[in-house]
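Page 47, continued from p. 46.
Same chain as before, 469 aa.
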Amino acid sequence: MILAAVGPAAVARAADAPPAEERLARTFPRPADLEPQIAFWRAIFTRYSKHQVVLHDAVQLDKVYKVLDFTPHVENGMSDGELAALERIETDLELERLRATLLRLHALGPHPESLAVDERRIYDLFADDPAPDRYLAAADEKRLHSQRGLRERFADGIRVAHRYLPEMERIFREEGLPVELTRLPLIESCFNLHAYSKVGAAGIWQFMPATGRHFMRIDNLVDERRDPIASTRAAAQFLGRVHDMLGSWPLAITAYNHGPDGMARAVDEVGTSDIGRIVREYQGRAFGFASRNFYAEFLAALDVERDYQTYFGDLSVDPPLRAHERRLDRALGIEAAARLARTDRTELALLNPALSSAIVSGRRPIPAGYRLRMPEAGQAGFDSRLAEFSAEERVTRVAAPEPRIVSAALRTHAVARATPTRRARHVSTSTRSHRVRVATARKASSRAGKRAKVRVGQGQKARAAANET
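Result:
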């Protein structure tokens, strides 16, 4: 009976659907009640510019009240600081006007007469909502929301992403995960390699330090969150564990923003794993606008990236990264590493963004165990050159002249000649150096103790808030 109601044409289309599309639909389902959200985020990613602010309902995202366009001010030469101040003022004023209009519509009752133009437009927006208090509910400050356009940032993110996506997809395949998950950084950071959030999340995957340390190295010498490939390995491991815990990709993706424990609570409270119902019904205190929209944003990002030329025209994307990795079995200065890799320090630093400024400047060596990334041209013969370099260093150390030993009598004579002031300075400096060493050791011990207490998933809720005004 149901098949007959669907009709032969629809059955034929389903039978002809390519396996890849079927797999995508099963892996990342698109509930019908999420489609307005998906469409909204597609528009934010592709239609609205960074100088446009969209005023909309935070629950029913298809209800867009107004778009504030500040582009003319930019074209007239307004400075960034002046523009930012103007945007804040105008956005706040317009939200207050919208609130007043919604409250006025609520007071006028179900059949108002002689509405002003703005009132009529909002009245028509809610024509599909039968709730008697629809305007009053929409006037709540949590419902009135502003969102800046991301067209420029998203286009740039896609351009950069194509440099890393082939290697990222290979890593996810090795972990047995859907390669489409590699598009998550488009909504986390727009593939900004230097992205830092105000709460401490870093890199394209926006890992918090506490969570990141379970999967990669994060310290004062190396922060692998900043490396798009190293952090992708970490993200694949993290997402795999979360999926095993929650059992579906919509839940695991949302947990990347809201946290695995938070999504487990949502499933328990709503009594379902259906992401559409959870988004619609779950009222968890921390389940706010960002968490509620995260999966819809991901689906919108998939749509846009897969068909980016339709949205951005002839966008010139970066060529795939061509590099080779070699795990170092000994510490190595960056100048020496660059020579052995047949490149220069600048190029090597660009290929290894996890390295700290202390290493890049040459003050500290690249630590043993680090996976050094080098140009493909430097791969051939690197191991043999490193072996020769190491042997030469050993010979140099053995051949170095013995330090001169000053006789005890000469030392006594030198001390006797030293003035009390100089001796006092020497003793003071030595004591101060000792205190610094002790303090440093204590701090290191304290940090190690804190790291030992970190739990998986701690802090992963935080997400860069760059998307929102």
